[in-house]
Amino acid sequence: MRKMKTMGFLCLLIMLCAMTAYASDNALPEAVQKIADKAIETASDYAKQLDGKWGDQHAALVESGAGKAFDGFKELHTVLSGLAAKNDTYYVYALYPSGDAKASPYIITVDASESPDEYGKEIDFESEHFEAWSGKAVAQNVTWKDDDGEMRISAYAPVHDSTGKIVAIIGVDVPTP
After folding, report:
1. Which run of H or of E encompasses 151?
2. Which domains does the chain have, with CATH numbers?
């Protein structure tokens, strides 16, 4: 009986160590976490400013299938660019799922970045996209290198139309150390 208790304790201890190692491997360094938190705050702030009219126009853009030829595209882009310029954010863009929001790639619909991607460019699915599409502002738990070799972290927040339906995700990519 004592041997079984000892074995049970050892198994529990091994599981606890494995969970701790997994959590520490997936945690951001403190300085980067602070930047990620600020990026979430920025994405959330942008999304709140875009809720309503901008969200309605974005929904019409996607429904039209016209892309940049959509009558209101320039206005959508101008509003998003204004937010980016006011807050000195380099990468700001809107995403929409290309199919099943839980598993499909997302497409760029409006990109106000200094070097914008084209309407309709597919972005590989990431779980954070679905979390934002589900209503939660979130940042990635990893950093990445942009085309210029700069380290970045992305954050996403949902944008709602005037009825409260999520119609886009706003993404912001910010520099990290």
Report:
1. strand 151-160
2. 29-175 (3.30.450.20)
